[in-house]
Amino acid sequence: MPRRLTAAPQRLLDRLWPWLCAASVALSLLMLTALLSLLLVRGLGHFWPATLEEVTLRSGEVVAGEAIRETPLPQQAGDERLYFTGNRDVAGASWRWVPVDDIAQRTTPEDLVRLTRTPWGDFIGRLVSVESDGERLEGQPAWDYLTAALALPANQRPAGALLLATADGQTLRQPLTNISGATAPNAMAWWQKTHTWGERVWQFLSQGPRAANTRGGVWPAIFGTVLMVILMSVIVTPFGVLAAIYLNEIAHQNRLTRLVRIGVRNLAGVPSIVYGVFGLGVFVYGIGGSLDSWFFSDTLPSPTFGTGGLLWASLTLALLTLPVVIVATEEGLARIPDAQREGAVALGATRLEMLVRIVLPMAVPAMLTGVILAVARAAGEVAPLMLVGVAKLAPQMPVDGEFPYLHLERKFMHLGYHLFDTAFHGEDVQAAMPLVYATALLLVLIVLMLNLTAIFLRHYFRRQRGNEC
Amino acid sequence: MIPPRAPVSHQPLRQLKNRIATSLITAGGIGVLLAILAIGVFLIWETLPLLSLDETFALTKLSPLAWGTLKAALAAMLFALPIALGAAMYSALFMSARLRSRIKPALEMMEAIPGVVIGFIAGLVLAPWVERNLASTLMVLVWLPLSAGLAGVLWHLLSSRLRQALPLSWAGLWLVPWIAGMLLLALWFAPLLETLLPGGDLRQLLEQRWGLDYATRNALIVGIAMGFAVIPSIYALAEDALADVPDTLMEGAHALGASRWQALWKVALPAAGPGIFSAVMIGAGRAVGETMIVLMASGNTALLSASPFEGMRSMAAAIAIELPEASPGGLTYRYLILAALVLFVFTFLVNTLAEMVRLRMRRRYQKAGRH
Amino acid sequence: MKRIDLSRNRGCRLRAVLVVALMLCASMAFGQPQPISGTLSAIGSDTMAGLTLRWAEALTNRYPGISVQFQATGSASVPPALTAGTTRLGPMSRPMSAEERQAFIDRYGYPPLALRVAKDALVLVVHRHNPLNAITRQQADAIFSTDQACGAPSPIRRWSELPATHDWSYGHIALHGRNLASGTHGLFQAEVLCGGRFRPDISEHPGSSAVVAAVGESPNAMGYAGYNHLTPMVHALRLITQDGTEIAPTEQTIQRNEYPLARNLYLYVNLPPGESLPPADQAFLALILSEEGQQIARAAGFVPLPESELITQRAW
């Protein structure tokens, strides 16, 4: 009987396909969690004072450093481990691959220290002595003196020099003024490590980048991102609301309006890079170029507004997020029952009064949601900014004490671009990786927080409205 | 009692204010709309000079880019569609309402993760890992769907008490550890399986048997990364479409003796078809225009190859890296703007199509609901 | 383009007072003359952005009164900016062309002062476990180009076609390089490909460090990058010259210009003959050509000038 034959596989399908679908949800959740936990672990772990190892190789050579990762060697010859050894001035390189099978002994001596220096980067080794004012300290007093000196602001530190020894016995002198930090992670208790961790996280958030973006913090990037987003929302809110009011309240609801509405909605799906091209062509080269030739001709050929800058970036992103705000506000306006409007007009209000006193207050939550969604989208956008004003390094903040205080023509730093730049343009990607993870984590946190706010607001207002009904 | 106010027409100031405000809003609104529409006009204007030039130039420059864009989008859709649609079907038809109200925002949060972060993970973490563990990756791609089926079979074999403890309506959540476990199993098992291959190395086999070169950053990586990025938008729209199918339709189908599979295949999917179609279109539109992920994970090789293990260069990525250095008005500048125009027109058309289909469907349901 | 202003280091007014007070002590300690102040602005090369910044950082550490602004717009933007008088200092990763120089002379009547400030090199890199150690320029051309303009008989696509890696088990050579807009791309084309055309299947990365990272992750890859981007993930190939000697890109060979792909990094200065520079600019030049400045260049991954050359450069 042919029916029976087809029935069996069909029954199987009937049983199994819900599981395939359920597994899709599970897989999506798994990927999301994996991504977030990878960022969390790598991003935050970087600030934890890592254990320093002293490794004696079979050849008798001694290497001290932080173990970074292990990869298999070709031809199944075991694994090799990457150590960050610092000491670029002495060793010529600050990284070392060590085949795991070559390691004779692995210890974590408590007297290993890690110093942050300029210009040569980290030093890993032992502190032999401190010389200051003709005095010579050794052992624990030397370490105490060093930490006390480093606790002072950079320009009040006593002049002096450190005598350091690397793990393989070379010694070097280092002026105290070149040192910016010192830890002895192997000797630290967990609470000391937590304290240092907190300090480093704070430094990451509050300081500017140093040594051409390979160290230091991301404060200018946070500042630039936030300032750009604020400017953008200041621009996008009135215009978006205006357009939404026009579309929903004033324009005749005919075929053309419907078409325009569909058009606006679809612009939300146009790739952001296209907006970037528009911004570059119209704002930067078009408007900016003309502004330069009218007002800033004395500084030409170096452009003032005719190059990417804060203003153009905010405008471009405002254009990009305009559809989001318009659509959200319109939805809010459409949800207001016509009876409210009719009632207001019946009581003698003009259209303006009806709009300002009745309709707009009721649509505020929708506008707010729209603006927050716009902000969330703008905060994560990088591609258009690469064309219209983001900079790799711009410690010259767009806001400062110089008149006119807010410098709209200046380039600015952006978290997303900073991430891209350190990962692809930096000097030593391996060294910058932890910073990249931390920046990525920060960016994701900011964007997620904005989105959560939007979701929460929408939910809250919806429920409130539900209670009213 | 409220004293009667004079009629509006007797208050010239209020009237005037109203008129002025209305015309201001009109002007502002039209102005904003025109500004938005100016994008298209600008792009066309800037590419016009290309017409007077040698036409083949733009075409030869653009065709690898167009191919790369499509290839990347296709790879992303291949990865995203089964997952997004499966997730949509599950959460619209089976998931418990409580779980759904939690899971849906969580999956929507996925959309918020910036492309530059996904691109960085894909290009600098995933791509090297996949290159070292190609066999494991392919194994995972095959094994995960099978293991989901296996979960179903095992579930049906369980005692009824255990089945109640692990209901299907919560499977989206409790399958997470199962999937993770299966993933680890596949990762552990794949290298053993690879040694059984002739030569013991998958990449060599691919290369010698089929002549497939392997590039670190390739369509596979871009597909996974960009697929991850477009899953949420496809999921959200498709789920809405499926959830909008009136319950009466499904109940009717069940009453007539249809199995769940038949009810889905013969009733729910055709009814939600246009909505799902528009979800897929919008996902495709996003995949075509995504810049940072392709820029960081694709290798940017302008190749016309269909191999999943070779890279590509998309229009969006080409614009992002080359336009800032191109001198305005020059040939490169114009052809990059042409690429932007192509992107603009393509995504605009795709989205309009999706929107029209969606609106039509909504109207149909309103009718169906009324009957 | 980047603008860098290190004046932010100065902090608030109170701290500035403290700084000045301390500067007095410090200047006595270091035997420096009176503190110098002023604004120093430079426009220039992208390659040298990190280096210029580090120099600027050191300068403002020593003279907190100086604030530095730097825009990295690429080497090509330096000559017009110098000629137009927008900037007095212009770091460039290549020498000025004859036309660029002539344009400057036409405007001012004297040539710009060209200082060599450090050395850099283009390096070919492979994965750290790759047995290939040396390569001829013709081979490199045969690997990277479609037309073998340097005269190699046939293109090289697979590791087995190179004698040193005949038994290397990885099949084809995966190529990595820079994107079209970068100067490194152009330099490689001119120097290694003899002006020929790049293969289309080279992965074009938006930065040198991305090239190095990509090569470091795949054993069958080869790429080119700036010397200062070398990491432990890769090793740089020695170049075999016409007479058969192998030259590794090391500090010594680059310093002595023995490595064929070495290049000078320049600082162009608009200095009218017989006049002296403002004190801030003078301090900057003195720092760059001092032992400390050269050590900073080394720390940034570049190669310091040899002592002999340094002395001639100091005599500007």
UniProtKB/TrEMBL annotation, chain A:
<dbReference type="InterPro" id="IPR000515">
    <property type="entry name" value="MetI-like"/>
</dbReference>
<keyword id="KW-1133">Transmembrane helix</keyword>
<protein>
    <recommendedName>
        <fullName>Phosphate transport system permease protein PstA</fullName>
    </recommendedName>
</protein>
<comment type="similarity">
    <text>Belongs to the binding-protein-dependent transport system permease family. CysTW subfamily.</text>
</comment>
<dbReference type="InterPro" id="IPR035906">
    <property type="entry name" value="MetI-like_sf"/>
</dbReference>
<feature type="domain" description="ABC transmembrane type-1">
    <location>
        <begin position="222"/>
        <end position="454"/>
    </location>
</feature>
<keyword id="KW-1003">Cell membrane</keyword>
<feature type="transmembrane region" description="Helical">
    <location>
        <begin position="218"/>
        <end position="247"/>
    </location>
</feature>
<keyword id="KW-0472">Membrane</keyword>
<feature type="transmembrane region" description="Helical">
    <location>
        <begin position="311"/>
        <end position="333"/>
    </location>
</feature>
<dbReference type="GO" id="GO:0035435">
    <property type="term" value="P:phosphate ion transmembrane transport"/>
</dbReference>
<dbReference type="InterPro" id="IPR005672">
    <property type="entry name" value="Phosphate_PstA"/>
</dbReference>
<dbReference type="Pfam" id="PF00528">
    <property type="entry name" value="BPD_transp_1"/>
</dbReference>
<keyword id="KW-0813">Transport</keyword>
<keyword id="KW-0812">Transmembrane</keyword>
TrEMBL record, chain B:
<keyword id="KW-1133">Transmembrane helix</keyword>
<feature type="transmembrane region" description="Helical">
    <location>
        <begin position="333"/>
        <end position="354"/>
    </location>
</feature>
<dbReference type="InterPro" id="IPR035906">
    <property type="entry name" value="MetI-like_sf"/>
</dbReference>
<keyword id="KW-0813">Transport</keyword>
<feature type="transmembrane region" description="Helical">
    <location>
        <begin position="20"/>
        <end position="45"/>
    </location>
</feature>
<dbReference type="Pfam" id="PF00528">
    <property type="entry name" value="BPD_transp_1"/>
</dbReference>
<feature type="transmembrane region" description="Helical">
    <location>
        <begin position="219"/>
        <end position="238"/>
    </location>
</feature>
<comment type="similarity">
    <text>Belongs to the binding-protein-dependent transport system permease family.</text>
</comment>
<feature type="transmembrane region" description="Helical">
    <location>
        <begin position="136"/>
        <end position="158"/>
    </location>
</feature>
<keyword id="KW-0812">Transmembrane</keyword>
<dbReference type="InterPro" id="IPR000515">
    <property type="entry name" value="MetI-like"/>
</dbReference>
<protein>
    <submittedName>
        <fullName>Phosphate transport system permease protein</fullName>
    </submittedName>
</protein>
<feature type="transmembrane region" description="Helical">
    <location>
        <begin position="170"/>
        <end position="190"/>
    </location>
</feature>
<feature type="transmembrane region" description="Helical">
    <location>
        <begin position="112"/>
        <end position="130"/>
    </location>
</feature>
<feature type="domain" description="ABC transmembrane type-1">
    <location>
        <begin position="66"/>
        <end position="354"/>
    </location>
</feature>
Automatic annotation (TrEMBL), chain C:
<dbReference type="InterPro" id="IPR024370">
    <property type="entry name" value="PBP_domain"/>
</dbReference>
<feature type="domain" description="PBP">
    <location>
        <begin position="34"/>
        <end position="292"/>
    </location>
</feature>
<protein>
    <submittedName>
        <fullName>Phosphate transport system substrate-binding protein</fullName>
    </submittedName>
</protein>
<feature type="signal peptide">
    <location>
        <begin position="1"/>
        <end position="31"/>
    </location>
</feature>
<keyword id="KW-0732">Signal</keyword>
<dbReference type="InterPro" id="IPR050811">
    <property type="entry name" value="Phosphate_ABC_transporter"/>
</dbReference>
<dbReference type="Pfam" id="PF12849">
    <property type="entry name" value="PBP_like_2"/>
</dbReference>
